[in-house]
Design goal:
This protein is α/β, with parallel strands linked by helices and 363 residues long. The chain has 2 domains: 166 residues, NAD(P)-binding Rossmann-like Domain (Rossmann fold, 3-Layer(aba) Sandwich); 179 residues, Dihydrodipicolinate Reductase, domain 2, CATH 3.30.360.10. It is built from 12 helices and 14 strands. The strands form 3 sheets. Strands 3-2-1-4-5-6 form a 6-stranded parallel sheet, sandwiched between helices. The protein has a 6-stranded mixed sheet with strand order 10-7-11-14-13-12. α6 links the parallel β5 and β6. The longest helix has 17 residues. It is globular, with a radius of gyration of 20 Å.
Length: 363
């Protein structure tokens, strides 16, 4: 019998669900034993359900091809077969909130890629290298839900991964103001070039909800657990303003960012802070953790999606073009892989952290 934890994927047929499937194919700790999606796909084999709409470069892994898709609303049936689930369901925000909480109350830990619970006060929103201590809020969440195993944890928006890690490495220099413009890949909308011909030779200067997420989510990540209020209190600085654009790139979110600091670090100090930044995933050598979380590239024309998006199997962050500015103290360019670090891979790393900390266990 396998000693791996049994994993279910909710929303398994979508682009993020497919990325989960490929990333978990040979995972040393987790095994996909169940796939769930909408009632339209229920009853089909996974291979049948994704036929003609498989978006990954890799083939559908053999181990999941013949799994029969269950209706994601069959919570009690699914709960009996898994140790925890990854959630990438495509529903309205209210529907996602309800179904993820229903799974948690059925004593199933939920690690979610969705935004619905990111601002639920006792739900941790985790970048494992930055705020692994926020998982202790789960104790209070379980008390609210009346559960012993079940809870919800979420990963943040994909676009902030291109600049928030750098700002995290620089927290000791007290950043006060940030302007971040993100140039986001079409896979962030679940699209390929085949699905979205309108993006060719085009830039779309609006992505619904992205700017609010970009400005607010880092503050929750940098916040503190308040044991009296039993919630995470967001940080109040730096003030972040952003613009988010969709560009003709398949994978990779790029950010052009400007920063003011209360302290006045040198370029050498900033680069050293980036290159030396480590977290619990590196200390514990979690399976999906990059050995080098952030790399600094010295070339004038880097980072580039073509060369750098797959740094550390897409789980590392690339920073370059750090230079002084006429208005702000410093400016830089960041790059992250939006469906690896920014989506499924980031959630898998969260689950590895939660397992290592004892929050996810065999049922």
């Amino acid at each position: 019998m396998s000693k791996k934890l049994r994993v279910g994927i909710l929303g398994a047929t979508g682009m993020v669900g497919q990325r989960y499937i490929t990333l978990l194919a040979d995972h040393p700790w987790f095994e996909v034993v169940l796939v769930a999606a909408s009632s339209r796909s229920a009853g089909k084999t996974y291979e049948q359900a994704v036929a003609g709409r498989w978006k990954m470069d890799e083939a559908v892994p053999t181990a999941v091809r013949e799994l029969t898709i269950l209706d994601v609303n069959q919570v009690s049936q699914i709960a009996k077969q898994v140790d925890f689930v990854f959630s990438a369901v495509s529903m309205s925000k209210d529907e996602i909130k309800k179904i993820e909480e229903t799974y948690a109350k059925a004593e199933v830990p939920v690690v979610s890629n969705n935004s619905a619970h990111r601002w639920t006060p006792d739900v941790p929103m985790i970048v494992p290298e930055i705020n692994p201590d926020h998982t202790r809020i789960i104790k209070y969440q379980r008390e609210r839900l009346g559960t012993t195993r079940g809870f919800i944890a979420v990963k943040p928006n994909c676009s902030i991964q291109s600049y928030a890690p750098a700002l995290s490495a620089w927290r000791k220099f007290e950043p006060t103001q940030v302007v971040a413009t993100t140039y986001q890949a079409i896979s962030g909308a679940g699209k390929t070039f085949k699905d979205a011909p309108e993006i060719l030779n085009n830039v779309v200067p609006f992505i619904s909800g992205e700017e609010e997420k970009s400005e607010k989510e880092p503050l929750k990540i940098w916040g503190q657990v308040d044991d009296q209020k039993r919630e995470i209190i967001p940080a109040t600085s730096p003030i972040i303003t952003s613009q988010c654009l969709r560009v003709a790139v398949l994978y990779g979110h790029t950010a052009a960012a400007f920063v003011n600091f209360k302290q006045k670090p040198t370029k050498e100090e900033l680069i050293e802070a980036l290159e030396n930044y480590r977290g619990v995933p590196q200390e514990l050598k979690l399976p999906s953790a990059p050995a080098q979380f952030i790399q600094y590239l010295t070339e004038d024309d880097r980072p580039q999606v073509r060369f750098d998006v797959n740094f550390e199997n897409g789980m590392g962050i690339s920073i370059g073009r750090l230079r002084t500015d006429k208005i702000f103290d410093w400016k830089f360019v960041g790059l992250s892989h939006n469906t690896a670090r920014g989506a499924a891979g980031g959630a898998i790393l969260c689950a590895e952290l939660l397992k290592a900390q004892g929050y996810i266990t065999a049922n």
